[in-house]
Amino acid sequence: MTWLNPEQVRAAFWQGGLLAYPTEAVWGLGCNPWDQVAVGRLLTLKQRPLHKGLILVAGQWAVLAPWLEHLSAPQHAQLTATWPGPVTWLIPRPPGMPDWITGGQSTVAMRLSAHPTIATLTSILGMPLVSTSANRSGRRAGRHEWQVRYWLGDDVDCYISGPTGGAAQPSTIRDLVTGTRLR
């Protein structure tokens, strides 16, 4: 059972904190996507370059909907065919999406997750989370809370306990325009 303190989560999130939480296959590391300082902290902790971009994840369609309005009906149909689920889509960059999320690229990565912890988190926050694997770049991703706590320790402001979804691999990544599978 996931243990989640909504007040603690909100406080950490709105104060620029980093959150660690279970996802479909591995533990995720996230923060407020509109807080450039928080995103910078996350990138520094992970030792991840900005140009790679980051994933936005939510557990409710409504949380991502404002960033999907520019898409065509066939593109929406592609998303709804795989969401919610472990498919991350590279979507044409919507107006107003910051460079610190896209890495300056013409796309943004988004996923509508079926994982209950992500659904609860984004419901509490009312917005998507930055979501990347909870590890330093180039190292294996944590599948257990104890691993993430050992590797990242007090650099994470809020740990949300619970099991991963049991998937063997991280989410598939596909390009919405070309249909190409990237991972």
UniProtKB/TrEMBL annotation:
Pfam families: Sua5_yciO_yrdC. InterPro entries: DHBP_synth_RibB-like_a/b_dom, Sua5-like_dom, TC-AMP_synthase, TC-AMP_synthase_SUA5. This is Threonylcarbamoyl-AMP synthase. Transmembrane segments: none annotated. Residues 3-183 form the YrdC-like domain. It is found in: Cytoplasm. It catalyses: L-threonine + hydrogencarbonate + ATP = L-threonylcarbamoyladenylate + diphosphate + H2O. Belongs to the SUA5 family. TsaC subfamily.
